[in-house]
Amino acid sequence: MTRRRILLVAVAVVLMAGGIGVARGIEGATAAFAGDALYAAMLYVVVAFIAPQLRAAVVAPIAFAVCAAVEVFQLTGVPAHLAGTVPGAALVLGTTFQWTDLVAYAIGAAAVGVVDALSRRAAGSSRGGRTTPSADGPQPHPRGGTPSR
Questions:
Q1: Which residues are within 8 A (CB) of 43 and not within 5 positions of it... i.e. 6 or more apart?
Q2: How far is 65 from 105, CA to CA, in rounded Å?
Q3: What's the pLDDT at 9?
Q4: Straight-line distance from the first to the last Cα atom of the chain, in angstroms, rounded to the nearest whole number
Q5: How does pLDDT run across 32-80, given as a tens digit for each residue?
Q6: CA 100 to CA 35: how far, in whole Å?
Q7: 149 pLDDT more than 70
Q8: pLDDT in tens, 103-141
Q9: How many CB atoms lie within 10 A of CB 76?
Q10: Rounded distance, CA 51 to CA 99, Å?
C-alpha cells in the first residue's frame, strides 16, 4: 500500500471518529449538517483511495456528485422503502430529500479537497509525491545558444 493510501486510511478513521462524536455529542440540525459534511468528506477519501493519482480538483466534484445523486435519489421514495427492509440502508442512502444536505455535501467535499491539495503541495507535487523517476536527481542545465525553429 502506498504512503498516500495509508494516509487516506488514517484520515478515514479520523472522519469516522468525528462522525461518531457528532452523532453522540450533538443534536438537531447542527448534527445533521455536520454529519452530512463528514459523509461527503468520507466519500472524498474513498474516491481518493480508489484513484490516488487524481487531483483534489477532480476528486472533490466526484464526491459531491455522488452525494448529490444519492440525495436526489431520495425523491423517488426508494431509499425510504429500503430503510424499512434492508438493515443499514438508511445510513448509506438516507430517507428524505433536504436541499440543505446538498450545501453540507459541498462544504464537506470542498473542505477536505482544500486540505488534500495543500498537503500535496507541501509534499512537493500536485499528486502528492515525486513527479518523475529522477525528480530527486540533479536538474539538467539549460542549453546555451538560440533555440532552433
A1: 63, 66, 67, 109
A2: 9
A3: 96
A4: 46
A5: 999 999 999 999 999 999 999 999 999 999 999 999 999 999 999 999 9
A6: 12
A7: no
A8: 999 999 999 999 999 999 998 755 545 555 555 555 555
A9: 10
A10: 29
Q: Rounded to whole angstroms, how far apart are CA atoms 114 and 81? A: 36
Grid coordinates of 112: 477536505
Extract the C-alpha cell encoding 24.
453522540
> Among all chains, which residue has been given the C-alpha cell 452525494?
67
Q: Following DSSP, what letter does each residue of the chain receive, concatenated?
A: --HHHHHHHHHHHHHHHHHHHHHHH--HHHHHHHHHHHHHHHHHHHHHHH-TTS-HHHHHHHHHHHHHHHHHHGGGSHHHHHHHHSTTHHHHH-SS--HHHHHHHHHHHHHHHHHHHHHHHHHTSTTSS-SSTTTTSPPPPPPPSPPP-
The residue with cell 483534489 is 56
The rounded distance, in Å, linking the Cα atoms of 44 and 16 is 13
Nine-digit cell string for 38: 463528514
Residue 91's pLDDT band, with cuts at 50, 70 and 90, is confident
